[in-house]
Structures are given as structure tokens and as C-alpha cells.
């Protein structure tokens, strides 16, 4: 029989063994619990990350203040009338298709200080965010358009030097001279002409002295953030311009219209105005040719004067009273004349005056009487415009009109020639 001491030792060992087994089981369970807990935490965290990313993506894609169309970097002329509220401004921007929603613009303006918004005429783009538009409109009409980093705006009337400076300021590593050299590079001109023949149609005949390729750059904003060389910059400008002008190439070819002049009109006045003016030319040209055969006045001059004097049949005098040429009269017979404000140049300076103008039954009556006036002169001098009739081309005729005192504007000759050449009106003289 075991002694009490030995039995006690066995009991201690048995107890220790039992404790060890229990501890092993407990630790296993704990490790299992901890492992499961960690896996659950990891899954939850993953769900949170996925949801967060999805939320961020949705926010970015549905940002109420994002640009209407980031790809459309063309600019539109937008006039905000004096006294407009923030809500009315937003509606104007929406109507002009500059922003997505007028209410969102209003909310943003109210949060940022709507009282800082200024009325006036702006150049705005669907590629601008609400923030950029707001910043521009709080800076005032005279401020340059607000653009994202890396973007450069080419505007109507900018010189090659100005464009080169803006590009050099924005593109690191390029100088103004680098850009100017590329704009006149014969090798680059030949390369771009082969690549974009419709865009650069007529570049060989261009009489531009410097920055020749700039004439074929559509006035809009350009993303130059990825361009490293001057040639890459110019190639980018022409590639984007070609895409913008693509819808018009057929019409330009059909009518023999020069790309540069039409681009400027499209950029400032839009597609509808371009189409309206072209329709005007097509409407009056056949009758102008008839009058040319009968009276000897060049058809191009007749059309150009009608377009210029009537603001393309958009003046009150032409649209309401069929007077294309601003013809004045002394006839006070009711229905035969109307008194309106007019701009006259005195010593080279414009002055607003009142005058009595003729009223015609039709626009053809207006064109016919104009041709008769050029041929027969006026009551005090029947040879008043003899040099106009004697002119052999539209440039001579345009100069003669000013020299023979048809108009008082010192720029009249230049204006007529520009209208004729922009719309290829000289084709109607053949």
C-alpha cells in the first residue's frame, strides 16, 4: 500500500496534468476566437474601404459643381444684364449651355458670396467648373478666363507674341522664342498640312508675316500639361482645332471660305450666327448678280455693303424697313420714311445723330435703288460714284466708295474688303 506521501505526490502530478490539458484547450479556443475576430475585422474594414471608394467615385461623377463638359474647351460670349440676381445669372449660364444646373450655381454662389458677382460680358466655357466660373465673374468682365493648371487660352485678336508668352508661362522649359520658331517652321507647317489638310487649306497662300500656324488655331482653351516641346505644343493646338472645326469643313469647301476668318466668327458669335450670315449671302447674291449685269456695280460690293450697313439684316432699319444700305431721304410721306438714330463720323470720331431714312416695300427694292444711286449719282453730282463703277475689282471699288464720300468711316474700305474676302463674295463677280 502506498504511503500518504506518495499518494499525495501522484495527486499533485495528476492535477498538474489536468491543468496543463485544460490550459492547452483554453489557449486553442482563444486562438480560434482571436483568429475569427481578426478575420471579421478585416472583412468589415474591407467593406468600409470599398464603400468609401464607391462613395468617392459617385461624388466625383455626380459633382454638382463639376464642369458641364470637360472636353469642350471652346468659349462662348455670355452677357449678364445689369441688375441680374445670382439665380438669374445661373439661368443665363444654363441657357447658354455653360453649366449643368442654374440652381446648383445659385447655391454655390450663395455659399461663396453672391454679392461679389458682377454683370457684364464674359468669355466662358463648358469645360470650366462652377468654382472657376464664379471666380471669373467675381473678378469682373475685364478679367481673363479662369483655367485649370496647365491650360492656355488662345483668344481672338491675340498676337503670336502674346500666345507664345502665355504658353511659355505655363509650360516649363519652353521659351517664347521656342514657340514663335515652331509657329513659323516650314517643316512643321508641311507636316501639319499633310496631317490636317482641311484645317490648313490655303496656308501656302497665307500672307501672314509671323506666327503663320497661329491663324489656324481655333480660339479656345488647350490642355498643355503633357507637352514638353514646342512642336508638341503646336501639334496639340492644331489637333484640337481640327476636331473643333470638323463639322464645318464641308460647308467651307463648298463655299470657298477661308478657315481662319470663319474660326474667329465661330469663336465669338457661334454656329447659328455663321449659318445666318451664310444664308444672307446665298439669299441676296443671285439678285446682286442681276443688278451687276444691268448697272455694272460689282456683285461682291453690293452684297458686302448690304451685309455691313444692315449688320447682316439684323438692324432695325433693314429687318423692319427693308433698308439694307442706310439710305437717307427727305421724303416725309407717311410710310415712305422713318427717323432713327445713326452713327456718323465727324473728324474721324463717331457721333450719334438722328436722320430720316427711306422705307422700302422689299429688300430687292433697296438693292435696286442702291445700284441706281451708284450709277446715276445724286441730284447735285451725277458723277459722284463714277470711280466705283469704273473699278476693275472689289478692292478698287471699296476704296472708291470712301474716296467718293459714300461713307464717313475711315475704316470703311478695310471693312468692306474683309467682309468680301471672309465670305468669298468675289466669286459672284465672275
From TrEMBL:
GO terms for molecular function: amidase activity. Keywords: Hydrolase, Membrane, Transmembrane, Transmembrane helix. The lineage of its organism: Bacteria, Bacillati, Bacillota, Bacilli, Lactobacillales. Belongs to the glycosyl hydrolase 73 family. Pfam families: Glucosaminidase (PF01832), YceG (PF02618). It comes from the Bacteria. This is Endolytic transglycosylase MltG. Residues 1-30 are annotated as: Disordered. PANTHER family: PEPTIDOGLYCAN HYDROLASE FLGJ (PTHR33308). The chain crosses the membrane at residues 40-61. Residues 265-429 form the Mannosyl-glycoprotein endo-beta-N-acetylglucosamidase-like domain. Residues 1-10 have a biased composition (Basic residues). InterPro entries: Glycosyl_Hydrolase_73 (IPR051056), MGlyc_endo_b_GlcNAc-like_dom (IPR002901), MLTG-like (IPR003770).
